[in-house]
């Protein structure tokens, strides 16, 4: 059975939501970052970055929320969280899955810290453009791939929920609000919220 290392009030929410979407059994290993549990030698052997989430699946171990999305979606194809190999939608799926940590995440941090960056040098360009691009995709909706929900929605939707709704780091837009509402209406999101609340 997969083991998910998680902490309340953290980015591990996306992995909880992901596992709940699969409907597969998994073991949750509480790694409370408020107690320093993520910096013990045992945990650093699992994720040398000392951050949650992390996942163990037999001999396989990985961290990084978006990588966990990609891994679990492939391990449980019956959950239909990723378009199969050869499906043209897979290009969009990979684009959004990488757009999360590559563009949305640093743009959120940039807005929260108000650090000025050279937009040509910064891989995510500038925060305004990142959120404009996301806005345009979400206006088309209902999901990032159109009609089909995927693990990319988990990666980006959980980030938007935190940054827009919970921590108000990013100004909301009608498309963001409607999308977060759609995510939050999913039973797996709701089960994950109950778990994450402890
Ligand atoms: N790039 C990582 C970021 C994970 C991350 O920043 N986790 C935070 C919680 S939201 C953490 O574990 N912080 C504890 C620490 O740095 O000591 C991912 O996407 O999984």
Automatic annotation (TrEMBL):
Matches recorded under PROSITE patterns: GST_CTER, GST_NTER
Matches recorded under Pfam families:
GST_C_2, GST_N
Superkingdom: Bacteria
- What keywords tag this UniProt record? Transferase
Q: Does Secreted count among this protein's keywords?
A: no
Gene3D superfamilies for the chain = 1.20.1050.10, Glutaredoxin
Q: Which residues form the GST N-terminal domain?
A: 1-80
GO MF: transferase activity
Show where the GST C-terminal domain sits: 86-198
This chain belongs to the protein called Glutathione S-transferase
Source organism: Bradyrhizobium erythrophlei
């Amino acid at each position: 059975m997969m083991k998910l290392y998680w902490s309340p009030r953290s980015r591990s929410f996306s992995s909880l939501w992901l596992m709940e979407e699969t409907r597969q059994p998994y073991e949750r290993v509480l790694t409370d970052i408020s107690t320093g549990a993520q910096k013990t030698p045992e945990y650093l052997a699992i994720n040398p970055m000392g951050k949650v989430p992390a996942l163990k699946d037999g001999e396989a171990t990985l961290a990084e929320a978006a990588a966990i999305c990609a891994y679990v979606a492939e391990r449980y194809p019956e959950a239909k969280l990723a378009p199969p190999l050869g499906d043209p939608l897979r290009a969009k799926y990979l684009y959004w899955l990488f757009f999360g940590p590559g563009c949305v995440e640093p743009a959120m941090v940039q807005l929260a810290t108000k650090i000025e960056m050279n937009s040509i040098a910064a891989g995510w360009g500038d925060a305004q453009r990142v959120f404009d691009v996301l806005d345009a995709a979400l206006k088309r909706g209902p999901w990032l791939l159109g009609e089909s929900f995927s693990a990319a929605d988990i990666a980006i939707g959980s980030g938007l929920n935190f940054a827009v709704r919970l921590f108000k780091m990013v100004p909301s837009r009608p498309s963001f609000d409607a999308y977060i509402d759609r995510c939050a209406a999913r039973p797996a999101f709701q089960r994950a919220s109950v778990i994450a609340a402890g």
